[in-house]
Amino acid sequence: MRLVISLAGVLLMLITFLTGIFVVDQRQYAIVFARGEVKTVIENPGLNFKLPAPFQNVIFLDKRTLSSETQEPDRIITAEKMNILVDWYVKWRIVDPTLYYVSFGADEQRTQDRLAQIVKAALNDEITKRTLRQVIAGDREGLMAAIKKKMSEEARQIGLRIVDVRIRRLDYVEQINHSVYERMKSERTRVANELRSTGAADSEKIQADADRQRTVIMAEAYREAEKIRGQGDAAATRIYAQAFGQNPEFYKFYRSLEAYRASFNKKTDVMVVDPSSDFFRYMKNPRQGR
């Protein structure tokens, strides 16, 4: 009988011992609590012991960097009172397991909801100070640093540390998309018309300059041609004078032939001239002048 009691006692102790052993993974925190109160937090990995339930219980929390993101884009108002939709994501981790457990228990959904509230509040605080152009094309790093700072102050109070926060996408709300697109279209049309007007003015200017240059070049070419022609005529006259000066009588005869050719160019030409005039000198007596 005593042996049976002893074996039962040993078995009970073994069961108690085995149910009290738990292993902490290097990627986890372990919180040991009793009757809803946190007794100890184990951060180092390894084998640990607790009292069996219901005297003590243990829960595990992830110590890795986790991420949260928008399910639906948040609507934020910019400094110029323009509604935009902001799509974001945030990376965070648990740094104070006790404070985190007191704030959320082990409910990750509550954590996600609270983080969404913190992100939206920080986005509202910072984006409402800036215009849309400043948010999109301004100091994006400065904006994100300010948002992260505001979020970190809030997250520290619930046992979290914000590792990073980023805006993934900005968009207009559907109600103003059409007006924005029309305004953009009008602006692009205005710029295009200005470019066309500038191009037409430049084209006319270039055409006028080309016409002026053409006129100048043609005038200079004509002047040069006339100069060369005059020089040629002068040279020809000089050569004729030198050639005909050697035999004046032949020159007179040659000039008379030229006059006859010019006067009797057509068979129907008629001339009324005194036959005794010098014009018919070489017609009457070809030998005269020898």
List the main descriptive attributes of the protein structure presented here.
rod-shaped, 8 helices, single chain, 21% strand, three-stranded antiparallel sheet, alpha+beta, Tetrahydropterin Synthase, Chain A, 290 residues, 4 domains, 56% helix, four-stranded antiparallel sheet, 9 strands
Describe the overall structure.
The N and C termini lie far apart (186 Å). This protein folds into four domains: 56 residues, no CATH class; 107 residues, 2-Layer Sandwich (Tetrahydropterin Synthase, Chain A), CATH 3.30.479.30; 30 residues; 38 residues, no CATH class. Helix content is 56%, strand content 21%. The model has no long low-confidence stretch (mean pLDDT 80). Strand 2 and strand 3 form a beta hairpin. The chain is of the alpha+beta class and 290 residues long.
Largest sheet: 4 strands, antiparallel
Task: Give the radius of gyration.
Answer: 56 Å
User: What share of residues are in beta strands?
Assistant: 15-25%
**N-to-C span:** 186 Å
Tell me the name of the CATH homologous superfamily of the largest domain.
Band 7 domain
CATH architecture of the largest domain: 2-Layer Sandwich
Average pLDDT across residues?
80
- Structural class comes to alpha+beta
| Total domain modules | 4
Which spans have pLDDT < 50 for at least 5 consecutive residues? Answer: none
CATH topology of the largest domain: Tetrahydropterin Synthase, Chain A
